[in-house]
Structure formats: C-alpha cells, structure tokens
Input
Amino acid sequence: MSVDASILASDASGDAPARTWQAVCRVDDIPLRGARRVRRAAAGDVALFRAGDGHVFALLDRCPHKGGPLSQGIVFGHSVACPLHNWTIGLADGCARAPDEGCAVVFAVRVVDGTVHLDAAELRER
Ligand code: FES
Output
C-alpha cells in the first residue's frame, strides 16, 4: 500500500535545525508490525514501519544487501527481515545486524496527533 505526501508544517523548536515536516499518512494507515510506502518519483520509495509497540520508523525501501523491498519484509521488535535473503535490518539505524554489513538510508520521522510526518528536505534530497 502506498500514499502521496501532502500537508506541510514547520517546526523551529529545540536546538536542532528547523525542519519542514510533511504529513504523509495517519499512523493507523500503517499496519501494526507492518509497513507501507511513500512514493517518490526519482530517488526510490520510503518505507514507513510501525513496530508492535507503536514506534514508527522510516527507511529507504531498499535493502543495503541487494536492494530488496524492505516494506515487504517481516517486522519484529525494532527490526525488519528483508524478504529476499532474510538479512535483519535495524529500523532505528537502518543497519544490517552482524555478521552482515551495510545500512539503509534512514529518514527523520515524527508523529503528531496520530499523523506521520517526514522531513520535506529529506524527501526531496535523499
Ligand atoms: S536484498 Fe535484502 S537480504 Fe538480500
């Protein structure tokens, strides 16, 4: 399942550089212990994951091994098992668990009032 990015919101609070957040879906649109994709024209889709404890993560939908679609993998804990060769990828850092090596691109994500947001600049540039 996929969604198109839509609403924009700015956040200049805290010490971190200001981000412009883009609403992409509701948390409930992501299956529990599952994923959905945010379509992008050129740079590859972003996979949104919802762990069993409700945490939401965002990675480029491309395994660091041979490019498998991580959104089609099995989510367990804060990890996903790639559907192609079963590597375990950490959802927080995007990195393969030893002995495998490599990391998927990680996207900043936030959830406000049940709406999932991604950083608009990262969506354009990563
Ligand atoms: S492409 Fe993901 S484990 Fe091989």
Summary: Confidence is low (pLDDT under 50) at residues 1-10. DSSP finds one helix and eleven strands in the chain. The pocket of FE2/S2 (inorganic) cluster is lined by residues 63, 65-68, 82, 84-85, 87 (CB under 6 Å).
